[in-house]
Amino acid sequence: FDALAVKLMNKRPKPKPSANAVVRIALREVGCTESGTNTGTCVRKYQAVTWLGGTGWPWCAAFCCWVWKQAYGSIPRATAGAWHFTLNAGVRVSPENIRPGDCVSYRTGSGHINICVNPHPPGRPGYIETVGGNESNSVRHSYWPRYMIHSACRHPRSMGAVMESPVIDPNPPSDPNDTAYLPTEYDPQDFDQYVLEADNGS
User: No. of H helices and E strands in the chain?
Assistant: First the structure.
């Protein structure tokens, strides 16, 4: 009986990945801090998931790639650019339809991207609650204003779609000025101001 029970248990279907898993994994990473500039033990593990080799480059998109891979087992497109991620790495969704687990990019500097935790946080109208990498040199839990959203996307598996093995970007940039592919930066001073506004309830 015991052997049969173990065999049946092993045949039980594995739970499907969910957006809740994305949120849990992202929140567990809060507190990861750089050692040096755009590098460090946890930063390098995020960067290793993308097509861009080495370390020392802005890693907000790399963090999103890593979290999605942990939650879903694969990434539709392993990119290193914020806007390129939301436009190409998943199923695009409108800012009005953002859900927990979606990746959201913003119009700031050359772009920034993070993961939505709550699209309508209580007491913070006009903001979404997020977890993001490369925010003041760390993984941070914060709030971003909706008016800054550039685009957003959802992992195909969270929509019940069947996805093939992950795609490493087959066309890395030949032009170093191609900002659609390059790792992205944003102004930390601007970011701190957005967080200050949210904390003050503005």
Answer: 6, 6
